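Memo to structure team: turn this sequence into structure tokens by end of day. - J.P.
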Amino acid sequence: MKNTKLINLLNTFSTAEIKKFRDFTASPYFNKNKNVISLCDEVIKFYPGFLSDKLNEEYLYSRIFGNEKYDYFRLKNIISDLYNLGLEFLKQQSNVYTSFSPDFNMITQLRSRKLWKYHTKFVESYIEKFRKTEIKDGFYLYNEYLLTTEKQLSNVLKKPTSIEIIQEEFNSFHDFTLLNILKFYALMLHISKENRAGIVLKMFDEVYSYINNEKEFLNPTISIYKYIILLSVTRDTNYYRILKKQYFEKFRSLNFEDAYYAHMYIFGYCMDKFNIEADRNFINECYDLFKHAYENNMVSLGVLLYPDFINYVKVFMRNGDKKLSHEFMKRYKHNLPDEQAENCINFCNALILHREGDFKKSLALLLKVNFPLVILKVQVKILQLQLNYELGYYEETREQAEYFRKSLANEKGLSDDYKSSILGFVQQVLKLIGLKEISDKTFQKEALSEFKRIIDKDQKNHFGIKFWLEDRLKEF
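Reply from structure team:
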């Protein structure tokens, strides 16, 4: 019984839902089979978990049918009936998509029965109710459109020549449609950039021109997506500033999903400025964004992936916030998968110790880390190289650099852009050691100048490697 469809379904029910499901099963409107009700009563006694060894077919049969001879197919039929009732129960549950459906069904029924007085009353009351809603997302716009359509229909049916509400209906449809188009464009542009996929953005030029020329949109969610699109296309920092300001100011008017995706798009721009342009201002920009997400319980859309857990600590520590890093780790460490928890905690603590200057302890922790993901393996090796250099272990640094270089050359899990950037960094670390060993100060000064020129021109900043090299130059 433990891995049956029925038990797997009931395991997802909350305590409140289990109680409601019992009442649902006992309702003659949905079920008239008393044996199914008895089965439900017996099964839910094992909630939560349904782990008891007593939960088996023979036991349930005896509880329902007493001393009658065990009949597997008879029991199987009522188990199947109870499972189907579970699915029917789910159909009755309200969520963001369906919470307004029963009310809307009532309104359309009132219209179809030509009860105009009541129809008008309910339409107007719901329109007023929706306009007081704080979150003005796509579901809000969809429901508003349904209501304005009903308002227009009732006017036309009562007075066939009526055009009073047509502009209101069109405006509602416009907002609902525009938001969904912009959300698709934002996601498709992101996918195209990340995966180089062949995305076809139909009508994009026309829509882009429209939103670019339209000064403002009253709906906060549409306004956010407008600036996401403008920023995605132009990469203009002015649009970034507007988007970030609106995101923080209008955060409470966004639903969780829109807020999370807006965070993702803004962070994507920040990381381009950090990784590619090596703009140190965006250390603090990333910190502001991640701190805001943390304080608003928005660190993930669903399950917090362990690379994202590490990313939060990296962002906080780049800005030197040890306290927030430890607070974040304590709060979310229980979300880590068991097989990667120790790796994550050791790596994050190594990052913190490195920032504090405790290089030996940091290096000792790194030796315990062995991630399966290539992108994290690379970050571990980068930090090990940095620590060996900072500790003055130059021979170890040279050996590790050579091993790192060879492994990168054969690595298929990294893009050419990342490989080129990291291989350049490994080469520059070796040059740093060479500079340290130059005794002629005049020659060293000339070599440092050339070294700085190469870094400025060619070195990208993936994982902060360019910043680290620049900081090492200041030590000469």
